[in-house]
Specification:
Elements (H helix, E strand, L loop, with lengths): L6 E2 L14 H5 L4 E3 L2 E2 L8 E3 L5 H8 L7 E8 L2 E9 L4 E4 L10 E7 L2 E10 L14 E5 L21 E6 L3 E3 L3 E4 L5 E6 L6 H4 L6 E5 L18 H5 L1 H6 L11 E2 L8 E6 L2 E12 L13 E6 L4 H10 L19 H5 L2 E2 L3
Parallel strand pairs: 4-12
Antiparallel strand pairs: 1-20, 2-18, 3-6, 4-16, 5-6, 5-8, 6-7, 7-10, 8-9, 9-10, 11-14, 11-17, 12-13, 15-19, 17-18, 18-19
This protein binds calcium ion (CA) (2 copies).
Length: 351
């Protein structure tokens, strides 16, 4: 372990039976990676893209006005300074990932959006979040000191047509391309597309719920394992991981195919319906079954919390948190105290 790594649960390698369909079910449990990131020197890039696409296309996409509500979440814990992403969903509330704000030592929370920096007033972590990423309760709601006046908040999706939609991930996470995975530090806002492949976790993890939007990072046609660093050793797998391993229809690489990476935690996964954009997912974790582990290389999977499953909680949390902010910040830690056990299981490893 080093001091400059991303927060990761475990990334044990188990390369047995790599060609057997259904392997994701067996391996996901020990190849998960939270996508918060320790704050490293900013290198001016963010997110992981196809190796044959210009980064500027992704930076330009992130600048589209419908993605203005996505901003940078910075905070400190006893373990260091961290970066996540978040999405403004009302004038003063930001939806982000539970694992970004669940440490009882968290302090110095700020959110950058619309060209301004806002201090965090208080927050609430979902009561069922306990560090179990595959359970799908990785949400937190942050209330800012004051209102954001120059950004239109995102609308929370409350439909049920996520599967098959082409979604857009937006965040400020780490960068790289699919051949190597995440190799560059976080800091720049970027966006990319991916198909929302499924919400029923049953066939992927054995968990019977629909609280996670799963996507796979498809490689362009013809990409060979030998081109990359530790990619899963099958060109057919890389071209369509979910179809190859589980027989799940998932499509092939989009022009701006994209994977979330460290620092994208809490960022938004958007879909468009009836010409309106909605926040449908909150970035939560990466999973990988290849020799490179969950590093956002081709073939890796990502999970975003399906916000339509939590619409009631989001409304209630805003109501319960709607108190007058106290100067100097009052930290609403009642929920976070319940996840101490999970915090002890977190480890930091090399990026
Ligand atoms: Ca995909
Ligand atoms: Ca990988």
């Amino acid at each position: 372990m080093t001091q400059n790594g991303r927060q990761r649960l475990q990334a044990e390698k188990d390369n047995s039976n790599l060609s057997v369909p259904g392997i994701i079910v067996k391996k996901l449990l020990n190849t998960l990676c939270a996508v918060a990131a320790l704050l490293l020197p900013v290198t001016g890039q963010a997110g992981v893209i196809r190796h044959d696409v210009n980064m500027q296309e992704h930076i330009a996409l992130a600048a589209a006005p419908q993605f203005d509500p996505v901003g940078r979440l910075l905070f400190s814990t006893s373990a260091g300074n961290w970066i996540c992403s978040g999405t403004l969903i009302s004038a003063s509330f930001v939806l982000t990932a539970g694992h970004c704000l669940d440490d009882v030592t968290t302090s110095n929370v700020t959110f950058d959006v619309g060209g301004f920096t806002y201090s965090g007033a208080q927050w609430q972590v979902h009561a069922s979040w306990n560090g179990d990423f595959l359970a799908g309760n990785d949400l937190a709601l942050l209330q800012l000191m004051g209102n954001v006046g120059n950004v239109t908040p995102a609308s929370v999706y409350q439909g049920n047509d996520e599967v098959g939609a082409i979604g857009t991930h937006v965040g400020l996470g780490s960068s790289g391309n699919g051949l190597t995975g995440s190799t560059l530090g976080p800091g720049t806002k970027r966006a990319g597309n991916n198909r929302m492949d499924l919400v029923d976790s049953t066939n992927v993890t054995g968990r019977t719920h629909s609280n996670i939007i799963w996507t796979d990072f498809d490689a362009p046609a013809g990409t060979l394992p030998s081109q990359g660093t530790g990619l899963y050793p099958s060109a057919a797998y890389l071209a369509d991981p979910l179809a190859y391993s589980l027989g799940i229809t998932s499509g092939v690489a989009l022009n701006l195919e994209y994977s979330i990476a460290g620092g994208d935690s809490g960022g938004g996964f958007f879909l468009q319906e009836n010409n309106q954009w909605f926040l449908a997912g909150v970035h939560s974790f990466l999973a990988g079954i290849d020799a490179s582990g969950p590093n956002a290389s081709y073939g890796d999977l990502s999970g975003s919390i399906r916000v339509s499953s939590f619409a009631n909680w989001i409304d209630a949390a805003q109501g319960s948190a709607a108190v007058v902010p106290v100067p100097g910040a009052v930290w609403l830690l009642g929920s976070a105290l319940g996840v101490l056990g999970a915090l002890k299981r977190k480890v930091r490893v090399a990026a």
